[in-house]
């Protein structure tokens, strides 16, 4: 090691050491000269002889220095210094390259940050998050993915496990929070009292839940607010802690406020946490909630645990597995394997699958953007290298190693890439939060910090892109014929640079792919606007009825619907019908279905809507065969299917009268009607859909069916409101036109085109700058030729033709390749096109038009420059 | 940058050994070392500056010698190299190794 220390000391004081070495060699020379003089030589002759004898002093000095400094390090230092000087001397070039490359790396880094936050980072706001794991059960293969545990199973684990310092359970459920005069329903988490301790979350204000506060003997009405909720609904008032607030009409005391970093597992910022024992109290009429704490076969509490000190992940997994088996055996339940996982935002394969598909598509987009940026900067470097051919030629002829010059040019690329990486990191710090806010309305639903993995990723990108854009130009520029280069004749290199055209064509092709994808997505949205939804949108309103949950149990909710039906019929009001999930809404329900000749394993899930008689008539959905539901159908096992379902499972023939097994796999349902396909559930391709009468489906007071009614008669809204008022003045009704729902749904579509357009616009910009650069270079290369032509009387048109001719081929080739690439890419976008052809001529034509316009704009400036060339000056240039 | 190589007529590492040996008697400057080498070997061994100085730097780096500025015989400011304890140890070790190799070479030559 001491030699390393000496090396370092030398490195630090290299200037002094260099001086010492010089002096020493000078001294050596002098001594030699003196010796020769003593032998009788004249001073001058002695000096010359000494010099001759010494040979190459520079070489001796360099070799002596090389002993101390790793030569490559030394030359790298020189290269970096040289690069920085030469880059700052050409700010235009440097700035263009940095913006193009920086933004491209920024897009990539941003996407990676989002991916990191979603897929591999633990939940935000935990202490020592590596020790926190989730426990989940593996779903049967038919369903796939993982699910939660039943509460009794959680209790069984928590009581017996020795590998965990603590195990906590949580279950989400929406509640209605009344504060500041208004009520708002939001997702709350019902948690065990140790929840925050297990996660290691310290309260910002007040306290967490106390031990035993989740006791079922006497339910404690305490609540903890998320930071965002505290800020928006309670004005960040510290006095809010200790205050009472009403949740589902019951008074709760706010005891704490969570820190801003902690937003829970699902990432919504507006959150409230309540003791798990309060669930039956808040949802007394919800059979599911009431029995949840006792039913051993349920699935749905999510369990999180903190590993005990010195316990490995593996040990905990083994113990959980054994305890899970023991629980199933003791309860006589089929075994359900338990697994440990992390606390990432994306857990469970199904959710991850969708999100990863979106991220994957975006990833392709940003990689294309990076490629185009590399091609662009590569061309800039080529142009620079061409301008520096003289310098490179001189250095090569003086005996410089080609590898050395290549390395220096690469260093230039790497310095550029590193600074661009810095720009990218800055972008990754602000872009993802903005994009996520656009996407979800939440500022930071999960961890979006730029961590060392992001930095490493950016460094990797910078290195790769540096090789991508700098290596080829460097090799190219040093392959030259020295004699020609020294004559500073750029024309000689014309044929040597087909690389320029290739890089230009690549830029054009990639930006055409991105632009065409954006164009197709935009057209898809436009298509969705004009798409016939298959049901009446105008002249129909949707009423959301909200009742006080605690005072409406199942039978009262049922009575309410019956009363409302009777009331509306008596008032001879508008056509109306009830439906379980609102058309084009966020929620949808699915039900099992198997044909009579299929086994239970073959059960599939099909989307289902529970509707009342009058639904089809209100929405104007034609009944193609059979009949609508009638009042007595609640007690019959009947079903209506859409045309797609009829066609898919019964191919041909009359479907009415056929039977199949419904949910649970035991009850035979009889098809009584077939309705036309419509987009009631989704504006995308119509899927099989079945309609069931309300039946014995547990009515949830928090989610009463929606009332759809015709507003052809302008007084309909008033009629409905009056009818509700007559039944119970305490009920709130919110009435919105169905058209608004459709607009909302369509509004949600604009995101994909927005992102694609952003990338496409950037790509177009880069390609335009690239074309501008190449055209300008062509003019510079041929200044003399153009001058001669002008002198000989060439017209402006000839000159422009000359400028364009050189690179038009590359642009056209790029557009063709890009068009083909876009057609391939469009197959991926099919689902977002709403029936539009992936070869939509308007999208492609539009893109080609935009691109041609950009190419014309890019060639205009250089062409004008070419026409202004003064023949006299151009010829005198040599 | 080319690697530093000792003159081809010397066995690898021999130059370092010779320098150490010369410095074992007295501290000396670069020119002196070259002169001494020439004289002691009856002008058979002539070391060029482009080998000598890198070799001296190598020895400095490995801590076998240390350098100080002093006045030369002709009152010229010169850099004097002195053997360190490490250098002495290295000299002994290398000398032994060198002898072993010479003996081995002799044996091979005598055998044929």
Task: Please explain how this structure is put together.
- The complex is a heterodimer of chains A (878) and B (112).
- Chain A contains 28 helices and 22 strands.
- With 878 residues, chain A is an alpha+beta fold.
- In chain A, helix 13 (349-387) runs parallel beside helix 16 and helix 24 packs antiparallel against helix 26.
- The longest helix of chain A is centred in the middle third of the chain and has 39 residues, at 349-387.
- The two termini of chain A are 59 Å apart.
- Mean pLDDT of chain A is 82; it is low at 490-496.
- Chain B has helices spanning 14-25, 30-40, 49-61, 85-111; strands at 28-29, 65-71, 77-83.
- The relative contact order of chain B is 0.17.
- The model of chain B is unreliable at 1-8 (pLDDT under 50).
Structural class of chain A: alpha+beta
Q: Span from first to last CA of chain A?
A: 59 Å
- Helicity of chain A, in percent? 40-55%
- Number of DSSP-assigned strands of chain A: 22
Find the count of extended strands of chain B (DSSP E, 2+ residues): 3
Summarize the largest interface: chains and residue counts.
Answer: A-B, 33 and 28 residues
From the alpha-carbon coordinates, what is the Rg of chain B to the nearest angstrom? 15 Å
Across the major sheet of chain B, the strand order is 1-3-2
């Amino acid at each position: 090691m001491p030699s390393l220390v000496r090396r370092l000391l030398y490195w630090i004081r290299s200037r002094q050491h260099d001086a010492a070495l010089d002096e020493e060699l000078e001294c050596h020379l002098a001594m030699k000269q003196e010796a020769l003089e003593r032998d009788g030589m004249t001073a001058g002759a002695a000096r010359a002889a000494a010099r001759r004898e010494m040979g190459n002093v520079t070489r001796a000095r360099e070799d002596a220095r090389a002993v101390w400094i790793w030569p490559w390090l030394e030359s790298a230092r020189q290269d970096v210094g040289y690069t920085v000087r030469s880059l700052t001397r050409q700010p235009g070039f440097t700035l263009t390259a940095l913006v193009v490359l920086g933004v491209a790396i920024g897009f990539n880094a941003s996407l990676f940050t989002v991916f990191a936050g979603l897929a591999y980072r633990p939940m935000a706001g935990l202490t020592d998050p590596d020790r926190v794991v989730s426990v989940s059960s593996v779903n049967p293969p038919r369903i796939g993915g993982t699910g939660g545990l039943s509460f009794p199973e959680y209790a069984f684990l928590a009581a017996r496990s020795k590998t965990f310092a603590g195990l906590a359970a949580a279950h989400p459920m929406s509640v209605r929070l009344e504060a500041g005069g208004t009520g708002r329903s939001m997702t709350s988490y019902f948690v065990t009292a140790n929840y925050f301790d297990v996660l290691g979350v310290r309260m910002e204000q007040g306290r967490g839940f106390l031990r035993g506060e989740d006791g079922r003997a006497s339910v404690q009405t305490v609540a903890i607010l998320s930071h965002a909720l505290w800020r928006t609904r309670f004005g960040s008032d510290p006095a809010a802690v200790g205050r009472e607030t009403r949740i589902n009409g019951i008074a709760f005391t706010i005891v704490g406020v969570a820190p801003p970093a902690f937003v829970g597992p699902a990432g919504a910022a507006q959150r409230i946490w309540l003791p798990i024992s309060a669930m039956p109290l808040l949802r007394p009429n919800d059979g599911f909630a009431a029995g949840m704490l006792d039913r051993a076969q349920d699935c749905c509490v999510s369990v999180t645990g903190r590993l005990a000190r010195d316990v490995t992940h593996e040990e905990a997994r083994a113990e959980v597995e054994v305890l899970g088996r023991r629980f199933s055996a003791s309860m006589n339940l089929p075994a359900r394997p338990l697994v440990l996982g992390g606390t990432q935002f994306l857990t469970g394969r199904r959710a991850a699958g969708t999100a990863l598909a979106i991220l994957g598509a975006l990833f392709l987009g940003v990689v294309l953007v990076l490629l185009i940026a590399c091609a662009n900067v590569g061309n800039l470097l080529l142009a620079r290298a061409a301008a520096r051919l003289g310098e490179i030629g001189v250095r090569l002829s003086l005996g410089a190693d080609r590898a050395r010059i290549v390395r220096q040019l690469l260093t230039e690329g790497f310095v550029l890439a590193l600074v661009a990486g810095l720009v990218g990191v800055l972008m990754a710090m602000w872009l993802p939060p903005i994009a996520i806010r656009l996407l979800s309305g939440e500022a930071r639903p999960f961890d979006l910090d730029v961590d060392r993995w992001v930095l490493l990723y950016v460094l990797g990108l910078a290195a790769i892109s540096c090789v991508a854009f700098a290596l080829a130009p460097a090799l190219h520029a040093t392959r030259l014929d020295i004699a020609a280069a020294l004559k500073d004749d750029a024309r000689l290199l014309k044929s040597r640079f087909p690389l320029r055209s290739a890089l230009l064509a690549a830029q054009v092709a990639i930006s055409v792919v991105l632009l065409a994808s954006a164009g197709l997505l935009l057209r898809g949205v436009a298509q969705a606007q004009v798409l016939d939804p298959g049901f009446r949108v105008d002249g129909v309103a949707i009423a959301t009825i909200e009742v006080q949950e605690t005072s409406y149990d199942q039978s009262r909710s049922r009575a309410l619907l019956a009363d409302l039906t009777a009331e509306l019929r008596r008032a001879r009001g508008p056509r109306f019908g009830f439906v379980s999930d609102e058309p084009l809404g966020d929620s949808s329900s699915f039900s099992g279905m198997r044909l009579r000749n299929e086994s239970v394993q073959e059960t599939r899930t099909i989307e289902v809507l529970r509707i009342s008689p009058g639904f089809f008539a209100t929405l104007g959905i034609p009944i193609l065969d059979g009949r609508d539901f009638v009042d007595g159908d609640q007690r019959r096992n009947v079903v209506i299917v859409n045309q797609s379902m009829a066609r898919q499972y019964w191919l041909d023939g009359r479907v009415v009268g056929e039977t199949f097994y419904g949910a649970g796999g035991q009850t035979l349902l009889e098809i009584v009607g077939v309705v036309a396909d419509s987009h009631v559930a989704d504006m995308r391709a119509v899927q099989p859909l079945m309609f069931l009468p309300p039946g014995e489906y547990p009515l949830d007071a928090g989610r009463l069916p929606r009332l759809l009614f015709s507003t052809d008669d302008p007084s309909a809204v008033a009629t409905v409101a009056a009818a509700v008022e007559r039944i119970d003045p305490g009920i709130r009704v919110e009435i919105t036109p169905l058209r608004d729902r459709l607009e909302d749904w369509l509004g949600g579509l604009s995101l994909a085109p927005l992102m694609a357009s952003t990338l496409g616009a950037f790509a177009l910009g880069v390609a335009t700058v690239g074309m501008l650069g190449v055209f300008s270079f062509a003019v510079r290369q041929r200044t003399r030729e153009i001058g001669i032509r002008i002198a000989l009387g060439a017209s402006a048109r000839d000159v422009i033709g000359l400028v364009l001719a050189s690179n038009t081929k590359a642009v056209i080739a790029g557009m063709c390749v890009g068009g083909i690439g876009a057609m391939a890419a469009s197959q991926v976008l099919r689902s977002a096109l709403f029936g539009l052809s992936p070869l939509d001529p308007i999208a492609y034509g539009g893109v080609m038009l935009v691109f041609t316009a950009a190419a014309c704009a890019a060639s205009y400036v250089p062409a004008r420059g070419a026409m202004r060339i003064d023949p006299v000056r151009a010829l005198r240039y040599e | 940058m080319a690697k530093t190589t000792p003159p081809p007529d010397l066995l690898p590492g021999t130059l370092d050994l010779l320098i150490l040996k010369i410095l074992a008697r007295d501290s000396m400057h670069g020119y002196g070392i070259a002169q001494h080498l020439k004289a002691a070997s009856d002008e058979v061994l002539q070391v060029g500056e482009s080998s000598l100085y890198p070799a001296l730097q190598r020895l400095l780096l490995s801590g076998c010698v240390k350098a100080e500025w002093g006045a030369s015989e002709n009152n010229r400011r010169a850099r004097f190299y002195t053997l360190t304890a490490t250098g002495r140890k290295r000299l002994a070790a290398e000398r032994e190794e060198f002898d072993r190799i010479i003996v081995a070479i002799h044996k091979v030559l005598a055998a044929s």
